[in-house]
Amino acid sequence: MPRFNFWTVVMILTWVLLFVLLFIPVGSVLVSSFYDQEGNATLANYLKFLGEPRFHQAFVNTLVVGFGGLLGALVLGSIMAFCVSRFVIRGGRFVSLLAILALVSPPFIGAYSWIVLFGAGGVVRGFLRDMGINMPPIYGLGGILMVFSLKFYPYVYLMVSGALSNVNRSLEEAAEGLGLTPWQRTFKISFPMVFPALTAGGLLALIHAIADFGTPRLLGRGYNVLATEAFTLYSAEVGSNMSMATTISVILILVSMFFVMLQRYMSRRNVYHGNMINKPVRIQLKGWRNGLAHFAVYLIGLCGAMPVIISVIYSFRKTSGPVFQDGFALQSYERILFNLGDVVRNSLTFSVAAVVLIVMVGTVVGVLVARRTNFNTALLDGAFMVPYVMPGIVIGIAFIAAFNTGAIVLTGTAMIIILSIFIRRLPYTVRTTASSLRQISPSMEEAAISLGYSPFQAFLRITVPLIVPGIIAGGMLSFVTAINELSSSLVLYVGSTMTMPVRIYLLILDGDFGTAAALSTILLLLSGCAVYIAFRFMGRNEQALL
Amino acid sequence: MSYLTVSNATKQFGQSFMALNGVSVSVERGEFFTLLGPSGCGKTTLLRAIAGFNDLSSGEITLDGSNLRAVPPHQRDIGMVFQDYAVFPHLSVFDNVAFGLKPRKVPAAEIKTRVTQALDAVRLGAMAERLPAAMSGGQQQRIGLARAMVINPRLLLMDEPLSNLDAKLRIELREEIRDIQKQVDIATIYVTHDQEEALAISDRICVMNAGRIEQVGTPQEIYGNPQTRFVAEFVGTLNTFKPGEALDAMLGQLGLSAPDAASWAVRPERLGLAAAGSAANGAAVLPGTVTKYTYLGREAHVQVETPVGPIVVQVANPGMAATREAGEAVSVLVPHDAPMAFGTDNARIGG
After folding, report:
1. Which residues of B touch A452 (CB under 8 A)?
2. Per the structure, how many domains does chain A have?
3. Could you report the per-residue pLDDT of A429-455, keeping only the tens digit for each?
4. How far is residue B274's CA from residue B316's CA, in Å, rounded to a whole number?
5. pLDDT at B21
6. Are residue A337 and residue A294 in the same domain, yes or no?
7. If pLDDT is split at 50, 70 and 90, which confidence band does B271 have?
8. Domain final position from A300, A315, A330
């Protein structure tokens, strides 16, 4: 057998890809954080980080929003999961749909919608003021935490409801037989069973919360976190401090890496597999308890989906310039049609290009990882962990640092945005392809071989048709992430490569909410279509969105 | 020369583990040949080497006189039936069975007749257009069987095809497999760890253990005349006598002797049970006390404490009156030709 075959080439190309798009850019971030503006090697950046109260504050704030988001998501997510999987809730599927809506809408739309309701000139706040109730605007920490809780609760909800509906009812019946009261049963049996799912879901919320850039930027009003500090340092018009920005990126990577590792450890512990025989039944509650359960579930679901609802409504409101008028009109959409068509086109072409690349490369590499298991592929599998821990803002800064000068100059091109999305999402496709391949019994291909097909033909005729639906579904979900990407594009865009999330972000900063809402609605519509197609191909599987 | 010969097959995994350790077997045309043994004995490794999925470390395999190891697996023309059925879930039952005929360039009309015939043979003719995903395990394995046979392979391999099915279906399907194999007259190698299945289905059985062959023979030879202690224990059950004066006295009474014997044993169903104090012609009588009675319907197992140790006696067709109470005194009858002697290397040396 020749050792140098197709798969060896794939292996080498994959490593080249990882080095060019990941290790070298991220490495250069790491390296540039050890240099000052003049190019002298120094630890001054880190000393400055340790010394300056402003950075201390950002570090503490990052942890505060992270854990605050975790806590809020845990409370909302577990209440919803418990009610939906244990009680009969009318319209349970609708509630799940609300959770999906919250999940696929970009978080900064959430921030913006809550500003519309409770901001300085907020609708609800104004209404309450007219009634004599004066409430503070939601800017600052409180607002960030509220948006994070409502945005990230679906992670907890989806993980915990999955775990709860898999707890074998016999276990609770056994506990009942041993004389435990319902409360004791819940805390001594059910709770330990779903604890890994709870922590895994909560940490997922935390990871997204500390990487999020848009929400603290729009709602923070002086409440700075590491992601916003890095961006401020990078984008300052006077005295842009690249090496300090990279220093903060490195710190952000370290914080994020720690929690990603913790999250993966917890999800691996999530191994209580229930049997399919004795599934828990949902209880029909009576009276006020029933009312309370429905109220809680719908309140959480609707509040989580509020940004979507607000965006859709506001996108149809009549405007005069950036100011809303009474009544409805299609002005905002007209503005997009005439002025912002290129932004929509950019978003679509970049996302489609990135997804096509992701699917093609990800599938081949996934096959390599799953089918040629050796030390090298195990290493490759591990290397694909790296993009998981990279907040988008860091990838953006890293790409700027790496592709600004030198052998490959990409700054300002569409390619750099496509590649940044590509490298961040590639691991998901590699992993889903590898795991769906591992689920197909090898005897399936052996059967085809014994019937007279060569191994390659057997792969093509048996394995490929079986994994294609999963690949299409995965591609659609990648499309959702790609088209909603803000933080890396914000660093990488130039005028001609502006994408929809970037434009929305800028419109909100300019106060043009109507156009922002219309653009958001289009974005949500595109995401919704992609999720719908994904569910068509793999069945309704909310877990895949995690 | 036999139709299929395997000589000195050796398969080494890693540094030290020998999955196959110098195995040689030969299979005749039309023969139903079974590889029987516990998991890890090397039976599946041998089967997969014949199929071509795992090559041997050393050794030779010839089929109809030609070297099989030089032929890539997809050109060997060997049908295979898998433990997990390996039915293609995205193809209809018909397309599953027709799958192997396409690379053989069989004309469409002939494909139709041959697939229909094969499906009728496994009693799935009415389900040709269905997708296999929702079908039962037994039906899926019938598809697997039809698919492997429709190509008229030179050899049919079956890797524990019934082990994922429930007991009743297992018996039903093994009869069908046996009948179909006799009809189409294809040499078949069947792997199982179920001794009853092996006895029921095979022309010859090869009992394997730890990468080596223990014994090859007809079902009658394997069961009735085991050549090693392993075979005697794996195929059927065994009472081992406690060595000592009582055993020597009993052997003397029966006129049996094997000076090198390390152990003597007897199958439970070869023993008889009689009222205490009875005598019998040509059989040794062991006095004993019943310690346990297990009723199994068509048979009963009576555990008796005797001077040669605890012994299980199997009683066929136990009536209502045959029930024995614990503590009851009985006589165990040991016929002259029942005890078997095994040497220190566990090979059969007498009895």
Report:
1. 74-75, 77, 100, 103-104, 151
2. 2
3. 888 888 888 888 889 999 999 999 998
4. 14
5. 93
6. no
7. very high
8. A315
- Chain B partners of A458 at a C-beta cutoff of 8 Å? 74
Q: Rounded to two decimals, what is the model's pTM?
A: 0.76
Distances (CA, A) of A467 to A371, B42, B92: 14, 33, 18
- A374 plus A514 within the same structural domain: yes
| Three-class SS state of B24 | strand
Nearest-CA residue of chain A relative to B150?
A451
Is residue A309 domain-shared with residue A333, that is, in the same domain?
Answer: no
DSSP string for B93-125: HHHHHHTTTTTTT--HHHHHHHHHHHHHHTT-G
**Average of per-residue pLDDT across A117-131:** 80
Are A300 and A353 within one domain? no
Q: Determine whether the interchain pair A451/B151 forms a contact, defined as Cβ–Cβ distance below 8 Å.
A: yes
| Domain boundary, last residue among A289, A315, A341 | A315
Helices A341-371 and A375-383, axial angle in degrees (round to 10) = 150
Q: Amino acid letter at A69?
A: G
Interface membership of B105 toward A (CB under 8 Å): no
Shared domain check, A240 and A99: yes
Strands in B4-13's sheet, in edge-to-edge order, are B17-27, B4-13, B58-63, B66-67
pLDDT in tens, A128-173: 888 877 777 788 888 889 889 998 999 999 888 878 877 777 777 8
Lowest mean pLDDT among A28-32, A88-92, A220-224, B23-27: A28-32
Question: Is it the case that residue A270 has pLDDT exceeding 70?
Answer: no
Tell if the CB–CB gap between A451 and B53 is shorter than 8 Å: no
The secondary structure of B258-314 as a DSSP string is -TT-SEEEE-GGG-EEEETT---TTEEEEEEEEEEEEE-SSEEEEEEEETTEEEEEE
pLDDT at A240 (0 to 100):
64
Residue A2: pLDDT band by 50, 70, 90 thresholds? Answer: very low
d(CA A200, CA A194): 10
* Residue contact A452–B84, C-beta within 8 A: no
Domain that holds residue A74: 33-315
- Is A430 within 8 Å of A362 (Cβ atoms)? yes
- Domains in chain B (CATH in brackets) are 4-234 (3.40.50.300), 239-350 (2.40.50.140)
* pLDDT for position A307: 85
Q: Which residues of A touch B89 (CB under 8 A)?
A: 466
Asked if the ipTM is above 0.90, the reply is: no
Gap between the Cα atoms of A160 and A170, Å rounded:
19
My answer on whether A514 and A371 are in the same domain is: yes
Which residues of A fall within a CB distance of 8 Å from B144? Answer: 447
Whether residues A7 and A75 fall in one domain = no
At B89, list the tokens.
């879930």
Q: Dihedrals φ, ψ of B193, to 5°?
A: -110, 5
| CATH code of residue A260 | 1.10.3720.10
> Using the beta-carbon criterion (under 8 Å), do B74 and A458 form an inter-chain contact?
yes
For testing contact with chain B, the best of A436, A445, A451, A454 (most B CBs within 10 A): A451
B89 interfacial to chain A (CB closer than 8 Å): yes
Residue B191 has which token pair?
Answer: 């792997």
Identity of residue A120: A
pLDDT in tens, A314-347: 888 887 777 777 778 888 888 888 888 889 999 9
Same-domain status, A223 and A353:
no
Cβ-Cβ contacts under 8 Å between A and B: the total is 60
Residue linked to tokens 């319907």: B297
Count, residues in chain A:
546
Tell if the CB–CB gap between A447 and B80 is shorter than 8 Å.
yes
Question: What are the DSSP calls for B155-194, one per residue?
Answer: EEEEESTTTTS-HHHHHHHHHHHHHHHHHHT--EEEEES-
